[in-house]
Amino acid sequence: MACLSSEEWGIICDKFANAQNLTDVESKNDPDNDPFRSKYKARELLREIYCSLKSFEAGETEEDSDQRPEEQPVDGQPDEGICRGFSGDSRDGLRAAKLGVVEYYLGINHVETEELSAGQEHLMNCIKQLEKCRVSSENVSLFIHVRNQLGIIWAGRDETDTAQGFLETAESIYQRYMKEDGSPPTDMTEYFTTEEKLLTHQERTKRFELAYTHTMYYLAQVYQNLGETERAATYCHSTLQRQLQLNQFNPIEWALNAATLSQYYITKGRYLEGRHCLAAATVISGLAGEVPSEAAAQESDMESDHREQLRQKRAEIARCWIKYCLNLLQDAKKLLEDTIGELDTDCQEELKRARRHEEEEEEKGRKIALLFGSEDTFDSIASLEEKVQCLFPLDFTEARAVFLVGQNYVAQAKEYFQMDGYVTDHIEILQDHSSLFRALAFFEEDLERRCKMHKRRVDMLEPICNDLNSQYYLLIRRQLMFELAETYNEMLDLKLTLVNRQADTQSLDNHTIKKFNHLCSASAKYFQMFLDSLCSPEGKLPEHLEEEVLRPALVARFRVARLQSRLISSIPPVQLDNLNKSLENYKYVVQYCEAHPEAAPAVETELELSKEMVGLLPLKIERLKARMAVNN
């Protein structure tokens, strides 16, 4: 501004520097009973700067105005409402930008002191000042920063569409500037800095790119809230990449965000990207240092908190690895199973023949994927990726390799999420471990070994299920009951298959019958425990089953009916009792669906078989009664 002397300008610069120091440094030491003391002082200095600029603006002479150069558009046309009016280096444009900077920092000050409405007003005043300017290297950073902040404010009010508008405008400003200019722009702090304290080109570039990184970070959240998950994932991935490039990240928080992003890719079947995110998360989390020993952590609360945070975040990353391995195995199982849930060997051979081409495509895909890391970390990330495949396992050997990686991370996660203190988390990890065994068992051709895998599942889940307090952990107990019931049922089917294979060479011995009946009774017991958990205190099932338990409850009744009829006994009265109980449960399924027709689609197959058995079992029961009468 023409009428400012060097001394007056120096005073303004000193006030601005003091305001920045009060905000960024002194405020950290403010007492709890006056948490905004330094920021209020900074606000007063910013107001004084604003008043000084306005008074100098009013005092500018007409002669000064006459000496201004004629304004000409930079490229002939303004930027359609975003950037219009004056060229970046005009006196009016520079004056407006300086006032805009002060309005911006006043807005931030009010937001940080929890005065959002006043903060929004100052930020909008900044926008109005910028309407007098064309985007240039002098002000483009301010153009982006102010819209980022307004986007944050509106997103915090759940006005997602409004936030989206501000942030997408900031994005378009950045992209146009980089396309048409691209030089390191002036940072906002440099408006009130003496020449000897101006930033280097490298520092200017870093700060500008960081501002745009924030734009992408906020847009990722906006798109997530709008349900645009694909766009949200793309922006999140780019944000993480830029944070690494700019070396502006907290290692453990970055790692957790990358691990969380992997879960999106996994649900979309994009295991290449999911594995890369997890490998990067593991490597970058290592930059946070080693977990301090308990003895060292006891020296200070800060060290203790740091130790706890590192252990927790790394355990959470381990859980994301478990999900990766589990989903990879389960998706491979879906791809390879036939209509009855067994391995389709023809499909398996066809996929193996296509594997070589698929591996070639993987390398091509790696070049397309957004990869993380610098020269220092990329080799470590690539090395970790080599330890687990991202292609579907097609046989037991490949499946076992994936399983072992998952099991290793189960052990890591359980070290932190122990039963004492993290009941729900610990049980969820155990359930994932059980699911890993189940997925691996699909690939095992030896039925005895497959049965042993299911026995491992029982051994890890049964003690937990029986020890849990049903008053506090009812839903978890129901999950465990149902899984245990199904696991015993799978073991029963495997034993039956083995018996059928041996039927030509030997008859059933007492040991086999005893084992068969044990599995049958155990499965029925846990299905019945699940059903009992749905009953009223008087022991009655509700007349109307809630949607979340409708299918499990009807399936449990169907399975109990089937299991009761499969029990082997040489004693006719016991046989009769088992058949009557079986018929009673089949009838329940049929009668419930007749009374509630909307339930039928949920158990279509079970209902059809129940109707068939309701017709057949009475005949079988009558024949048994007739034989009993003859024998008596």
State the main characteristics:
single chain; 632 residues; mainly alpha; 23 helices; 0% strand
Low-confidence stretches: 61-89
Computed CA radius of gyration, to the nearest angstrom: 35 Å
In quaternary terms, these chains amount to: single chain
% residues in beta strands = under 5%
Q: What is the number of helices?
A: 23
Q: Main beta sheet: strand number and arrangement?
A: none
The outline comes out as elongated
Distance between the termini: 118 Å
Total strands: 0
H/E series, N to C? Answer: HHHHHHHHHHHHHHHHHHHHHHH
Helical content stands at: over 70%
Coarse structural class: mainly alpha
Mean pLDDT, as a whole number? Answer: 88
Descriptive overview:
There is one protein chain. The protein has 632 residues and is mainly alpha-helical. It has a domain of 99 residues. It is built from 23 helices and no strands. Helix 16 runs antiparallel to helix 17. The longest helix is centred in the middle third of the chain and has 36 residues. About 5% of the residues have low confidence.
Give a topology summary.
Blueprint (H helix, E strand, L loop, with lengths): L5 H19 L12 H23 L2 H5 L24 H22 L3 H15 L9 H17 L3 H21 L20 H25 L3 H18 L4 H17 L3 H15 L8 H4 L3 H36 L8 H24 L6 H11 L10 H21 L6 H21 L3 H21 L6 H29 L7 H24 L13 H20 L5 H24 L8 H28 L1
Helix pairs in contact: 1-2, 2-4, 4-5, 4-6, 5-6, 6-7, 6-8, 7-8, 8-9, 9-10, 10-11, 10-13, 11-13, 11-15, 13-16, 13-17, 16-17, 17-18, 18-19, 19-20, 20-21, 21-22, 22-23
